[in-house]
Amino acid sequence: MARLTMLIMSPPHSDESAERMCGLSNRALERGMEVVVYLLGDGVLCSKKGQKGYIGQNIRTAVGKGITVRASAKDLRARAITADQVEQGVEVVEDLEGEFVEDVMEKAERVITW
Amino acid sequence: MVGEGKKKTMTMMLFTGPYGSQYADHMCRIADRALDKGYGVQIFLYGDGVHSQLKGQNPKAFFNVGEALTKLAEKGAVIKSCVRCSTARGYVEGEFNEKEERYPSSKTIDAVKIYSLYGYVEMLGNTDKAITLGSSN
Asked: Shortest CA distance to A93 belongs to which of A75, A109, A108, A106?
């Protein structure tokens, strides 16, 4: 199975990056790709529980559909977001940069950054 | 982790300057972890990304991108910036120096070599994966 790895570093509602990421990850999954999404910097705001609209709905359902979503623990702490405020199923990772590097270099066939 | 043999290499192109956003910060953090894991790292600064090469950066509250690039170069990262973008922003002070393989500038840190865009093409020819930062909008 082809693996698509995506890194998002921008917040959910300031521009269209998160929306594009959600749309593309869903389409890739529908076409049989393995999809892994890394949330870094302001990208971790996409994982905050209870958001209204397209991004919140997509993050809530992404994990259930089989998309792996990982958020940087350091960047969540920097934004005072606690683990219980993160959508269920999102993996909170201490060394997100390190895991992203290994994913990109050893596993992913295609990588997209937002 | 990287084992014996040719080192796998990651190439990163940065489009945004330091401090206006966290892209430069993220790039440095990713590059640092890649070097720690034994991968090669190549960085090309493009557009406003060339401002990360400015000497004497002194942010009071933010991660110092200039110092981070210097440390990355000391750990083995190859860092170049676009001459056309650097000229537009007032960094370039003469013709290409063949011996030093860089365009001269007294305003930039030693860790970054101002180079033609072919430098990025050469990086792509010698990389396993390439990513861009700060270019999605």
From this structure: A75
Residue of A24, A101, A103, A111 to mutate when probing chain B, most B C-beta within 10 A: A101
From the list A9, A97, A113, which residue is nearest B33 (CB)? A97
If you average pLDDT over residues A98-111, what whole number do you get? 97
Looking at chain A, which residue has its C-alpha nearest residue B14? A113
Residue B2 has pLDDT above 70, yes or no: no
Nearest Cα to Cα of residue A45 among A5, A13, A91: A13
User: What ipTM, to 2 d.p.?
Assistant: 0.92
> Which DSSP letter does residue A90 get?
P
Round to whole Å and give the CA distance between B20 and A95. 24
Cβ count within 10 A of residue A47: 27
Number of domains present in the structure of chain A: 1
This prediction's pTM: 0.93
Q: Report how far Cα A35 is from the mean position of its chain's Cα atoms.
A: 10
CATH number of B9-133: 3.40.1260.10
Each residue's pLDDT tens digit, B95-129? 999 999 999 999 999 999 999 999 999 999 999 99
